[in-house]
TrEMBL record:
It comes from the Bacteria. This is VOC family protein. It comes from Marinicrinis lubricantis. It holds the Pfam family Glyoxalase. Residues 9-127, 169-284 form the VOC domain. The lineage of its organism: Bacteria, Bacillati, Bacillota, Bacilli, Bacillales. InterPro entries: Glyas_Bleomycin-R_OHBP_Dase, Glyas_Fos-R_dOase_dom, Glyoxalase_1_CS, VOC_core. Keywords: Metal-binding.
Length: 284
């Protein structure tokens, strides 16, 4: 299902601020199953295939714990290639004894939820075939049902866990925002995403190319929630990949037309949503 390549726009990387780099490296390699692509005294870049970066964690001096009820990351979501891969990941997570926060069947996908040692949310999921998704007009049908664990685990081949499969990608990112209408204006009118599901006035799911969602947006931390103060654990920024330079130029024009902040620094284009979430715009 080619929802994460040209001509679509999608999130490809997430950058987090953490409080203890060594602890995060241990967690993301031993529990999640990443490989370390690059490492310094203050930063680690993680990959699944040994080449493409998916997650970067950075430790800074005097970093403070995550602030409650703020905008920012709800979770980043790692998309595994198959349901069997998800079954193997679930077996591994259970064997580690690391606490899980949930497991759900969303009809379009099946997902496992947990948090890293700093409280950054993580989803690990596998998509159902797109032919099995249901649509009502331009809205994809999603739900949150209990995961059928026994059925899923029947796919597990019991082979030794060797980490995330090489085909793992950043499937989507889900964000806390302060105002859903303002977020819709920015992400749809500015960045060019389409609404594919809306849950009342509290959550919005958007995508390109009719994916079930490349980005989730919610006000579950409160309408009008403030952005985190500087140097607190959480989301530093995430990367959106656009299909071409033409698409990037058109996106910059739309963002400027709606009054969004856009800036180029050292040949990198940055923007910021109305809730303070920083985004790198990159041509794929």
């Amino acid at each position: 299902m080619n929802f994460h390549q040209n001509p679509n726009t999608f999130a490809s990387e997430v950058h987090l601020l953490v409080s203890d780099l060594n602890r995060s490296i241990s967690f993301y390699t031993e529990v999640i199953g990443f490989k370390v692509l690059e490492q310094s005294d203050s930063k680690a870049i993680f990959t699944a295939d040994g080449a493409a970066p998916l997650l970067t964690v950075t430790e800074s001096e005097n970093v403070q714990p995550m602030q409650p009820r703020r905008t920012g990351l709800y979770h980043f979501a790692l998309l595994l290639p198959t349901r069997r891969d998800l079954a193997k990941a679930l077996r591994h997570l259970v064997q580690t004894g690391y606490p899980l926060q949930g497991a759900s069947d969303h009809l379009v996908s099946e997902a496992i939820y947990l948090g890293d040692p700093d409280g950054n949310g993580i989803e690990i999921y596998a998509d159902r075939p797109k032919e099995d998704w249901s649509w009502r007009g331009d809205q994809v049908v999603m739900s949150t049902e209990p995961l059928h664990v026994e059925e899923l685990m029947s796919l597990d081949d019991q082979e030794a866990w060797t980490g995330l499969p090489s085909g793992t990608i950043m499937g989507h990112i889900h964000l806390h925002v302060a105002d859903l209408h303002a977020a819709e204006q920015f992400y749809c009118n500015g960045l060019g995403f389409d609404i594919v599901t809306q849950y009342g006035t509290q959550a919005l799911f958007i995508s390109t190319g009719s994916y079930h969602h490349h980005i989730g947006l919610n006000t579950w931390n409160g309408v009008g929630a403030a952005a985190p103060d500087p140097n607190h654990v959480g989301l530093l920024f995430y990367t959106l990949v656009l299909p071409s330079q033409v698409a990037l130029n058109e996106t910059i024009q739309r963002l400027q037309q709606i009054g969004a902040w856009v800036e180029e620094q050292h040949s990198v284009t940055w923007t910021k949503d109305p809730s303070g979430n920083l985004i790198e715009l990159r041509v794929g």
